[in-house]
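Thread: quick sanity check before group meeting

JM: Hey all, I'm pulling together slides for Thursday and realized we never actually wrote out the predicted structure for the chain we discussed last week. Dropping the sequence here so it's in one place. If anyone has concerns about the input, flag it before I start.
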Amino acid sequence: MRFLAEQEDLNRNLKDLSRRTVWPEWKLNLHITPKDAKRLAHELIIWAKQTEAVRVTTAFADFSIPQVTFNKWALQFPELAESWEEVKRIFAEKRERGALEGRYNASIVLATLPLYDKEYMDHRIQMATLKAQEKSGPGQTVVNVSMDKMPKTDVVPEKALGGTSGDDYD
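JM (edit): ok, ran it. Output follows.
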């Protein structure tokens, strides 16, 4: 959580980013320092809040960073990995809101939501597990119910099974 507090402090100091942020020095040299990683982490979150992009992977094109390289950096720098999770959360909220407002196809958003939202992914896994357990259970069982014949009483006359006329009653 300390990272998020530092992020908000830096967000106040950073100016508005242009629509496409390019870091040309990374095109040739794919090594970054911890300071660069921290800067990129903050700029990713700002980008996610400002962009009109629909897919989170658009960040790789906008920042001119190969996805494989970014994944290596995320393993090396925890703040970058945390930032990426926050970016995915922001996109999940944007996409879900867009689907609710009718700007996006709701079924496509729902199908891809596990890519963006870990809690939703966990929920889908839990539901799939329960469904699998239900199918692998004992299944449907047939229960035969037999009733004893009702005793004759003066209050309720017995109905004949033939039911051909009203003479069947006592």
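AS: nice. Residues 114 and 121 are 4 Å apart (CA to CA). The mean pLDDT is 77.
JM: adding both to the slides.
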